[in-house]
Amino acid sequence: MMNIAVAQSGGPTCAINASLVGVFKEALKESQIDAIFGSVNGIEGIINNHLVDLKTLIRTNDDMELLRQTPSTVLGSCRYKLPEYKEDDTVYKKILKTLEQRQIGAFFYIGGNDSMDTVNKLSEYFRQECVDIKVIGIPKTIDNDLCITDHTPGFGSAAKYVAATMREIVRDSSVYSIPSVTIVEVMGRHAGWLTASSAVLHALGETAPHLIYVPERNFSLDAFLRDVRQEMAKHKAVIVAVSEGIEVPEGVQSGVVDNFGHKYLSGIGKYLEEAVRNEIGCKVRSIELNVMQRCSSHICSKTDIDEAEAIGSAGVSCALNDETGKVMVFRRVNEMPYTVVIETTNAANIANNEKFLPDDFITPSGNNISENALKYFLPLIQGELNIIMEQGLPKHFAIQESVLK
Amino acid sequence: MMNIAVAQSGGPTCAINASLVGVFKEALKESQIDAIFGSVNGIEGIINNHLVDLKTLIRTNDDMELLRQTPSTVLGSCRYKLPEYKEDDTVYKKILKTLEQRQIGAFFYIGGNDSMDTVNKLSEYFRQECVDIKVIGIPKTIDNDLCITDHTPGFGSAAKYVAATMREIVRDSSVYSIPSVTIVEVMGRHAGWLTASSAVLHALGETAPHLIYVPERNFSLDAFLRDVRQEMAKHKAVIVAVSEGIEVPEGVQSGVVDNFGHKYLSGIGKYLEEAVRNEIGCKVRSIELNVMQRCSSHICSKTDIDEAEAIGSAGVSCALNDETGKVMVFRRVNEMPYTVVIETTNAANIANNEKFLPDDFITPSGNNISENALKYFLPLIQGELNIIMEQGLPKHFAIQESVLK
Question: Which ipTM did the prediction report?
Answer without folding.
Answer: 0.95
